[in-house]
Fold:
Amino acid sequence: MPTSRASAEPPLAISTDVLTKKFSGGQIAVNQVSLRVPVGSVFGFLGPNGSGKTTTIRMLLGLVFATSGDIAVLGEPIPGRGGAALSAVGALVEGPAFHPYLSGQANLRRLDAADLTSSARDSRARVATALERVGLTAAAGKRYRNYSLGMRQRLGIAAALLRPRRLLILDEPTNGLDPQGTREVRHLVAELAADGTTVFVSSHLLSEVEHMCSHVGVMRTGSMVWQGSMRDLGSQQRVRVTVESLDSPLAKSVLADLGLSEITESDGQASAVLGDRPPEQVVAALVAAGVGVRGFSVAKPKLEDIFVQLTGEGFDVSG
Amino acid sequence: MSVAEPLTKPVLAVGGRFLLSEIGMQLRRRRNQLILAVLAAVPVIIGIAVKLTTHDGAGATGGLIGNITNNGIFVAFTALIVVIPIFLPMAVAVVAGETVAGEASLGTLRYLLAVPVGRTRLLLTKFAAMGFWCLLITSVVALAGVIIGVILFPSAHVTLLSGTQATLLGGVGRLVGMVLYAALMMLAVAAIGLFISTLTEVPIAAMAATLTVAIVMQVLVAVPQLHAIHPWLISDHLLNLADLLRDPLRVSGLRDGALLAVGYVVVFGSLAWARFTTKDVTS
Ligand SMILES: Nc1ncnc2c1ncn2[C@@H]1O[C@H](COP(=O)(O)OP(=O)(O)OP(=O)(O)O)[C@@H](O)[C@H]1O
Ligand SMILES: [Mg+2]
Structure:
């Protein structure tokens, strides 16, 4: 498995070792996942529906107990020591949840009051700042039950930002947000990341992830199929060259002779994954073999293509 | 790093703010306000009914109701005895059943645990808030009883069930005793409710189950053949409350009831703890 690992490992905000969760029904939701989330990264956690992202996040927060394997969040074991590390972690898990008959503000006051490490004195100010940060100041006094979908989502993010955090764990934070809201979240994440906050974000919006994340991990039916930095993901290894030529079968055989992989050929086009060979060598070899090259392109793969490649084309969830 | 505040916990962090916020939510809840209003209405209805049905000077008919006309504080005594078998357990079951299951069904449980509120601290806070609720409902009945009693009936000396007289101050002392005893018995019901509440994510189910347990205990007490298990049922000790109206005070029944209640709190509190600290929160 091409799990990238630097020789000297950077400090990790989240690390899990062969983490497994088997639900009482016998379902293995998470299967031997070893997450490596470096401090300071914006880590995109991807995977099709039901691939175990939320279950992993629940284990990171000590909500669900692992069947086997170890978890460390900000260097502290989870669960353990009353979850001391968690006060530096802001979280949004599977959508917001608040008391419907309390206002947004009262809901945040309640969460703030529940935090042993936060002082009563500036609770009001903290709540006001968090609400302002997500643009909810005008709706602060409204009952939560009267909030719109996006307002609820924003309140959830406000709760995650109630205190200065070293790590944010956001499960689909842009779900239900309008375009402005989505952009705001992206800005917010960039801003927090610039401050040094590590952000672990699960999302289905691959274009967002492409913009936002420095690292990605891809889940498939409970297993981690790839993780590493975005740079590695879109690196040479996965760059695809395409040759346009009237004699595409000949072009194909040249690509094969060069030892390139995943070669495809259709009328007038031959294409292959470049590997670590420089593209100019490919052009030279084609010309030397007498292939009439009409066009030559080097394309970095889109995250979506890689994602589909890693997780399969199938639309049905794997039960 | 953007850590502005230190992460060290104060040594004596009991989380009083969380408890206060829990109690605040309890009091703001419409349903709970309604429960309090209904409970307060019980002594008012008793007082008015007795006032309307007794003729002037018919006085000393004896018994509890008869004593009301002699002394207003007896409205409070009578009301507590009327509400303790069913009304109070209902009021406790509804609120206790919701403690954990309510948060689970709303999904707020996962956010409280992520704050983090340790699971043990969450249970202790919920239970402490239930303690406040038990004390509140019994006090409301007593207080409403005293107020309506003083308005409708004379209030000089208190004639006890044994026929002897006590001063008004002594009467109030006995009333406080009754309130505390009733609250303790209700705390036992609350412990059962708290445990049941950790078993489900459906608050209505937890409320219904807790209430069912309370009612089944009442029924069992009514079956004389089962007298062997009666001492182990809370409902068998509820009416020991009336012992506080005797002179000299008979404490053995009260002591047995209190010990049993503490036992229930310990047993069901431990069960709730064992269940809640090992349970996956997937709501
Ligand atoms: N409490 C539970 N009991 C049994 N199985 C569960 C439970 N919770 C989740 N699962 C199963 O675990 C698997 C992973 O679910 P999970 O919610 O982690 O997926 P996900 O990656 O977050 O999906 P999505 O993208 O749809 O949010 C699913 O097959 C799901 O049915
Ligand atoms: Mg999910």
